[in-house]
Amino acid sequence: MGDTPRTDPPKLSLLVPCYNEEKRVGATAKTVIEFIAESELDAELILIDDGSLDGTWTLLEGLRLAHPVVRTVHLEKNRGKGGALAAGVDAARGEYVLFFDADLSHGTENIRRALDVLERGADLVIGARDLNDDGDDYPLTRRVTSAVFNLVIDSLLGLGIPDTQCGFKAFRREVAGALFRTLTVSRFSFDVELLFLAKRWGHRIERIPIEVEHQEGSTVRVFRDGIQMFGDVVRIAWNAKRGRYPKSANR
Fold first, then answer.
1. Strands 169-172, 96-99: parallel, antiparallel or unpaired by DSSP?
2. Does residue 103 have a pLDDT over 60?
3. Share of the chain residues as helix, strand and coil, in percent rounded to the nearest 5
4. How far apart are CA 155 and CA 72, in angstroms?
5. CA-based radius of gyration for the chain
6. Strands 124-128 and 205-209
7. Most exposed: 39, 118, 127, 233, by fewest CB within 10 Å?
8. pLDDT digit string (tens) for 149-159?
9. Is 247 a domain residue?
10. What's the first-to-final CA gap in the chain, in angstroms?
């Protein structure tokens, strides 16, 4: 059994949404827990089970019982990545919140860098694969689909933010709370709506170069999910045109 879980709030809450991730999240959690200890990072690790159908929840609970830095959130029904992260943000106690994918494709070395940028005054930090000189090793299909998706986003919303779908983002907690409470999209396109709102509300958005190592076993189904994502972006643009989003975080 682990030591008694901490009761004082940490500086940073690390969020990992999990859906049917029993084969991968154990190794990811172990790596992150070791990173927190070795770097003496003042952080908690929140693992969110998004209504998994496999043994993910049992695994997460075992990690919570064994490691004081781990907390868990269990959703009875699948809400999508955005919905899972909204629940994680609600549970977070840190001054800052950072989320990344269960495969840890973005690596732990980027966590400290994102935190440093937040502490220098940013409201939101986005991992930017396009700023990395080494590029990434994602399959060609994923890269082409991503490029087309970004063109659609720019034409409909004028975001001007390349690679909105990078799964590594960090926030001041109060900023994350306001953004996630306002989202109407809960699945893969939630990032687009989140960034649209952040830009609309005048938040300071910073991008940092990150390396990404493609991992097998992705839950993204490129063509089927791509159709849904396109529909979500059209809905976001329609909502914006109809004035359905608040003009500021304070309404």
1. antiparallel
2. yes
3. 45, 15, 40
4. 39
5. 17
6. parallel
7. 39
8. 888 898 899 99
9. no
10. 46
Which tokens in the block code for residue 147?
């490029």
User: Angle of helix 56-66 relative to helix 25-38, nearest 10 degrees?
Assistant: 20
Q: Which residue has the tokens 């694969």?
A: 129
| Residue 220 domain boundaries | 12-241
Whole-number pLDDT of residue 249: 83
C-beta separation of 75 from 49 below 8 A: yes
Strand intervals (E) in the chain: 12-18, 43-50, 70-75, 96-99, 124-128, 169-172, 205-209
Cβ atoms within 10 A of the Cβ of 35, count? 19
Closest by CA position to 204, among listed 117, 128, 131: 117
Within a domain: 196: yes
Please tell me the predicted confidence (pLDDT) of residue 130: 76
User: Considering its fold, how many domains does the chain have in total?
Assistant: 1
Sign of CA dihedral 214, 114, 179, 193: negative
Strands (DSSP E) along 100-235, which ranges?
124-128, 169-172, 205-209
For residue range 127-163, list pLDDT tens digits in order: 998 776 555 555 667 667 777 888 889 889 999 898 8
The domain that holds 118 is classified in CATH as 3.90.550.10
- Please name which of 212, 96, 186 lies closest in space to residue 194, comparing C-alpha atoms: 186
